Amino acid sequence: MPKMRVVQVPSPKAPFQMVERDIPDPSPGTVRIKVQACGVCHSDSVTKEGLFPNISYPRVPGHEVIGVVDAVGTDVHPWKVGQRVGVGWNGGYCGYCDACRHGDMFACQTSMQVTGVTRDGGYGEFMITPVETLALVPESLSAVDGAPLMCAGVTTFNALRNSGARAGDVVAVLGLGGLGHLGVQYAAKMGAITVGIARGKDKEALAKKLGAAHYIDTETQDPAVELSKLGGAKVVLATVTNGPAMSATVGGLAIRGTLMVLGVPPSLEVPAFPMIGGMRSIKGWYSGLSIDSQETLAFSVQTGVKSMNEVYPLDKAPEAYERMMSGKARFRVVLNMQK
């Protein structure tokens, strides 16, 4: 039987293993993808460290997948062999629970699946995935460039387009890392007066290059004061994992402004009076479903939004993971199965 290489986590906290497996056949309602590239995301630590309940090991991580449909199971419509597709965090849903019936499939109450967590993901040469997870990939978008958009891209793009901000509004992006460097680009391309917020004067040039009209250095400036000088931010897109840094921006929200929380700090405390007095709000945002990913890819190609990536071959997956976890990558890490 034909074999494939995958990089798996044999058990929680164990080192990665490169192993050979039989290439699986797709079951009804699924397709097999020949993986071309897979992003290495901080959320892969959920699988590596055993942080998600009821993970079955060994497990192949990876939820930023770009590849080509290689085989289709029965009851698969309209996907065909040879189509370029992407797969993100959402790995499937039941379609009939109350959450799904309300259109909130991301919160499926009976069979919520996560790519690379509850089912095998993209750290390998092939993978199986349900048809509801598939996003069409533009032909002009390379696999390496597209992979990070399946998580970091859709998370920031989808949050912004659902934030209530319109062209001409002030939108601040807190953090200029893996999420933030994309968030600044999306906000600027959507027509927002974009503000980059980060630590250090040295990041100002990057923020401006990405499309920010203004930059706030939190080492020397109070973000709430500086945002207020601009009339207040309709939205602060918080991509960092530091609760106090998020809280420090609340006073800079415009009336009815929103702090959109994408990063996951251990805790978050905010002053009550600015929230009440300005009818401000805090909102979390889930990345998205397959159609959101598809629209993220299309918008990115149309407007020229591009992820900045460091690329590794599949057999360097442990090194790639450590590089990503170190926080030193600029700014996403991608496994290229075509190398």
Describe this structure in words.
The strands form four sheets. Strands 3, 4, 5, 8, 9, 16 and 17 form a seven-stranded mixed beta sheet that branches. This protein starts with a strand and ends with a strand. The chain folds into two domains: 3-151 and 288-336, Quinone Oxidoreductase, Chain A, domain 1; 154-284, Rossmann fold. By secondary structure, the protein is of the alpha/beta class. The mean pLDDT is 97. Helix 4 (152-161) packs across helix 5 and helix 4 packs across helix 10. Helix 11 links the parallel strand 16 (309-313) and strand 17. It has eleven helices and 17 strands. 24% of the residues lie in helices and 27% in strands. The radius of gyration is 20 Å and the shape is globular.
Topology, element by element:
Layout: E1 3-8, E2 17-22, E3 30-40, H1 45-48, E4 65-72, E5 84-87, E6 90-92, H2 98-101, E7 113-114, E8 126-130, E9 134-136, H3 143-146, H4 152-161, E10 170-174, H5 180-189, E11 193-198, H6 204-210, E12 214-217, H7 223-229, E13 233-238, H8 243-247, E14 253-261, H9 272-277, E15 281-284, H10 290-303, E16 309-313, H11 317-326, E17 332-336
Parallel strand pairs: 10-11, 10-13, 11-12, 13-14, 14-15, 16-17
Antiparallel strand pairs: 1-2, 3-4, 3-8, 3-17, 4-5, 5-9, 6-7
Helix pairs in contact: 4-5, 4-10
Outline of the structure:
This protein has 339 residues and is an alpha/beta fold. The protein has eleven helices and 17 strands.
Task: Give structural attributes.
2 domains, Rossmann fold, 24% helix, globular, six-stranded parallel β-sheet, 27% strand, alpha/beta, 11 helices, 339 residues, single chain, Quinone Oxidoreductase, Chain A, domain 1, seven-stranded mixed β-sheet
